[in-house]
From TrEMBL:
Organism: Streptomyces griseochromogenes
Keyword terms: Antibiotic resistance, Membrane, Transmembrane, Transmembrane helix
Membrane spanning residue stretches: 41-60, 72-95, 131-154, 160-179, 200-220, 226-244, 264-285, 305-323, 330-346, 352-373
Name of the molecule in the record: MFS family permease
Gene3D superfamilies recorded: MFS general substrate transporter like domains, Multidrug resistance protein D
SUPFAM superfamilies (alphabetical): MFS general substrate transporter (SSF103473)
Coiled coil (UniProt feature): none
GO CC annotation terms, alphabetical: plasma membrane
Predominant location category: membrane
Classification via InterPro entries: MFS (IPR011701), MFS_dom (IPR020846), MFS_trans_sf (IPR036259)
Upper lineage: Bacteria, Bacillati, Actinomycetota, Actinomycetes, Kitasatosporales
PANTHER family named in the record: EXPORT PROTEIN, MAJOR FACILITATOR SUPERFAMILY MULTIDRUG TRANSPORTER MFSC
Gene Ontology MF terms: transmembrane transporter activity
Domain Major facilitator superfamily (MFS) profile, first and last residues per copy: 6-442
Amino acid sequence: MNRRLTLAASVAGAVLVALDGTVLTVAQPSLQRALHASYTQVQWTSTAYLVAVASLLVFAGRLGDRYGQRRLFALGMLGFGATSAGIGLAPGIGWVIGLRVAQGVCGALLQPATLGMLRTAFPPDRLAMPLAVRTSAIGLAAAAGPLVGGALVSGLGWRSVFFLGVLPALGFGLAALAGGERTTAAAPGDEVRFRPSASLDLPGALLLAVTLACFVHTLVAPPGSGAATAAGFGGAALAGAAFLRHERRTASPLLPPEVIGSPAVGAALGLLVAVSASLFGTLFVETYVLQRRLGLDPFHSALRSLPLAVLMVLSAPLCPALLRRVGARWTAGAATAALALGVLVLSRATGTLALCCAFALLGAGFGTVMVAATHVVVRHADVAAAGVAGGLQQTALNVGPVIGVAAGTALMDAGPGTALLALAAVAACAVPAARALPGRGVASITHTPDERVRAGVPARR
């Protein structure tokens, strides 16, 4: 599979996952009525997927590094398509929830591979544009999802939204499977070192999965007693502490030190968590503001938020030029500040122009940070650890929104304005983290381990 087909497959996988989340939200009311399900059961169709995917992303990336990104992508896409078809045929809500868990597992397999394949196929200095194309496609999917989902649910019923991605998933999955696995990366001599004999660090994978599952479930599950919430966070803390201790002592850790030990990678992941938390928390709160306080119907609310998707799509392709001119440090820092400003404007905005400008700032900021930070994470990883790097990036983008929506929900009692100010502060406080990212010209002289090997410079291990 050549570079263009690799990029097409990566975009298809990312779009499929993005569409799935948006169309499900539109289909849930119809699904609830048709299957005579309770509100809690319907909420579990989202919760079950989130818990499964968030807990397995990093381990799935490790599997891709060991067995090949394309194989994991093919397995994930074929499984995603099959489970989507199964949900469309499900006779009851229990089947839907169970299949959503299986779909989450398949989503965890394919998401890190969409980035790992790009890292394998493109030289580090040419990664920014493929990542920008991928980000723009995600923005388009997020904008089109509610419209497509609404049209399908209105015309053909809720089951039709799950059949939407079946054929593309099966088509790209089979093409990736038939294409085989590349054994060389994009640049001459940049060998992809799959290590079938290397340890998968199953204990570490289990501890990390328990940590993330407890954390995400506690945040997204229906409100319970204080004791249940404390037990959930306590379980996440204990499992997390055990995971960190295990990683320090094991000879083959799940998270390679050259990836997780990089200040630039840590800062980029922190930025992704912060901006996604701020953005999705803001969207949650602002939906109530537009529809309840301002009295807009869903269609006119969507029109006012449309600049977000438009600017996200437009800003992503401009990011590579900014990275070349000013570096990731200034690009990500300014974009994070723009997102914080957009949330701040929304906390006071009521007029159409102010709302559209605020949403435009959100889209431009998020689209730019997503490309810049992802570029840092994936580029700084050795090719043999590209899957783990992709898993970490995807984990950040799954955990951040959960934190943001939970924070927005908790702060709504204090008023939407207060909630939005707090969410703006989350993004603003993340701006200094951009100082750890590479500056102008650093990308051309700071080489990844596999590049140092090609240049005859020993890579530090």
